[in-house]
């Protein structure tokens, strides 16, 4: 009798598991992306819509090029993961999702269930018993990428970038956290990294190279300019510090206590020391504000 009871309990448990698994199967959920090629740039917004042939719940998981998995929907800004049958729903309208590095092929995985997920925010990696659809996206590596120190007034810096882009007939979209502009067939994006709040990351794309139209002019460099600042007290020590800082960033420095030249982070320039340190910037990336370049150079000299 005891053996029969155990057998019945095992059968009930097995049936319950099978039923739970089967209730989640047979959902035809599909995702549609705003870009047919599913190819994106640094700081592009991911836009997609979902449809399903059944009422269901869903979550969206991003697996990056380094195979790191993160649930990007639902999230803290929008947790409504209910999808009605045969109703097309736009995702990431309330809680925007932006794409950054690592670059390369990545996966967007849509997971669907008839019943709401348990502990959805903790158990997003457990997908064996649910319907899943995988879509490959590609984030293109920039032609150039630089990082500069974040200025104390980001609002002023953003306004300078916006003004420069519009003055050159380009477009600009962004805020104090991130944004992008397109000028002279060059796309420039920027962001203050969440894991490095004192740094601004810039990414540059030559759109002519990407489209295959290499005849299209792409002006990637900014105009020359000059500035001066107070000479440090110990100039010998300062010059060595500048040399170390530039070379640590993979740049080149050639100079002494009187004059010299440097190249780092897309910036090329010369300096001459009198009662002041007089700097001439001969080459810089397009749309990077002069104030940001000036701050970067003065930082090398220990001035900020």
Low-pLDDT runs: 4-23
N/C terminus separation? 84 Å
Query: What level of helicity do the residues show?
Result: 10-25%
Number of strands: 21
The amount of beta strand, in percent, is 35-45%
Secondary structural class: alpha+beta
Q: Under the CATH scheme, which architecture of the largest domain would be assigned?
A: Sandwich
Name the assembly state: single chain
| Main sheet specs | 6 strands, mixed
Average pLDDT score: 86
- Shape, please? elongated
Determine Rg (CA atoms, Å). Answer: 27 Å
Q: Could you explain how this protein is built, in words?
A:
With 304 residues, the protein is of the alpha+beta class. The chain folds into three domains: 17-139, Immunoglobulin-like, CATH 2.60.40; 144-211, TATA-Binding Protein (2-Layer Sandwich); 225-300, TATA-Binding Protein, CATH 3.30.310. 22% of the residues lie in helices and 38% in strands. The protein contains five helices and 21 strands. The chain has helices at residues 2-23, 154-167, 207-211, 235-248, 290-300, and strands at residues 29-33, 39-40, 44-45, 48-52, 56-63, 69-73, 82-83, 89-91, 98-99, 104-113, 131-139, 144-149, 171-174, 178-183, 186-192, 199-206, 225-230, 252-255, 259-264, 267-273, 276-283. The strands form five sheets. Strands 2, 5, 6, 7, 10 and 11 form a six-stranded mixed beta sheet that branches. Strands 12-16-15-14-13 form a five-stranded antiparallel beta sheet. It starts with a helix and ends with a helix.
